[in-house]
Amino acid sequence: MLLLQPYKAKQFFFVLIKLSIVGAAFYFVYRKLTNNSALKFSDFSDFVLKKDIFSLKTIIFLAFLSTLNWFFEILKWKILINPIKTTKLKAATEQILGSLTASLFTPNRIGEYGAKALYFVQENRKKAVLINVIGNLLQMAVTVCFGCLGLLFFIKIYQPNIEYQKFHLFLIIALAVIILIGLAIAKSSFAIKWFSFIKIRAFLKSYPKNRLALGMLLSFLRYAIFSFQFFFLLQLLNIQLRYFEAMVIISTLYFLASVIPSIFIFDVVVKGGVAIYLFTFAKVDSLAILSIVTLMWILNFVFPSIVGSYFILKFQPKTNPIAS
Question: How far apart are CA 201 and CA 191, in angstroms?
Fold first, then answer.
């Protein structure tokens, strides 16, 4: 009996950690919805109810778009991770949604990397972290490409007051820093606790390029879906913007919000502030925009994280590879 005590204590401690993660996620969601200085939950709910936009058909369509958004993310992860561990769609779903819940309250979703790594045996965890970085970079690449186009059109159409000399200087400095860092990493043999850049280069060179192409395609499809969902909510609230006009602002919004570091739970606040500024040029009411940003956050992160909490509670660490 004495030999079993340490095992039982370890199991109890692990269950406590899982409950703490789920509890923290729900608490932060509750706090964000009820203590948002930019938008009171009562104002948000009153505005949405007065607009009477949520018919059964509308709810089903919005839920479908959110489901499709995360389905493509799950499929992308499955495709990217398969070279190191054959993973079925069910296992990929658990990994994606479970890590979403675990990262909900961590700075810049950093918790996602550790959470996903725990689904793999020790020898594959470093590679899983690298593949997660690749997946996020692919999504960021799509956001930046469309965001830069959107920003150019936004400046041309709305002509915001920008000190172009300082703006160009900032871009040149930022680009120079990125190039220097890239060159330093490419030629460096530097190693940190977990990673050697030589091994990272070797891994990236050997990684199947067709999977990167598929990952990029799925990232684009995700971008098209959640940006259209934003546009659809604009139409529901009777905001008369044509698709191109709306997409110029939406793509600029996601680009600017993505480059502003934030704790993920406050992502709705960051996007809300940027969205108000951008949509002001199109003379759109700030309450409507804050409500749409909040709805997007609830649909695409709060609801999936609730499902993810179930996967966290049922997660069991294994020394052997997880059966897919």
Answer: 12
Q: Which tokens is 243 given?
A: 């698709």
Q: How far is CA 91 from CA 49, 87, 116, 156, 323, in A?
A: 38, 6, 11, 46, 8
Partners of 196 in beta bridges? 191
Dihedral, CA atoms, 203, 208, 210, 216, nearest 10 degrees?
Answer: -30
Q: Read off the amino acid at residue 319.
A: T
Whole-number Å distance between alpha carbons of 306 and 135:
23
Count other Cβ atoms within 10 Å, centred on residue 63. 12
Q: Tell me which DSSP letter residue 323 carries.
A: P
By three-state DSSP, how is residue 76 classified? Answer: helix
Alpha helix stretches (DSSP H) within the chain: 4-34, 41-51, 56-81, 89-103, 111-117, 122-158, 164-187, 197-206, 209-236, 243-258, 267-280, 286-297, 303-314
pTM exceeds 0.90, yes or no: no
Q: What is the pLDDT of residues 19-58, one digit of tens each?
A: 888 887 778 777 777 776 667 777 777 777 777 677 888 9
**In whole angstroms, how far apart are CA 257 and each of 68, 106, 134, 320?**
22, 17, 20, 40
Q: Using the 8-state DSSP alphabet, how is residue 183 labeled?
A: H
Q: Is residue 34 within 8 Å of residue 180, measured between CB atoms?
A: no
Return d(Cα 107, Cα 262) in angstroms, integer. 6
Q: Is 163 helix (H, G, I), strand (E, B) or coil?
A: coil
Cα separation, 196 vs 217, whole angstroms: 29
Which residues have CB under 8 Å from 132's CB, separation 6+?
Answer: 112, 113, 116, 117
> Is the pLDDT reported for residue 240 higher than 90?
no
CA angle 190, 137, 245 (to 5 degrees): 150
* Measured distance CA(196)–CA(184) in Å, rounded: 13
23-32, 164-173, 185-194: which has the minimum mean pLDDT?
Answer: 185-194
β-bridge mates for residue 263, sequence order = 107
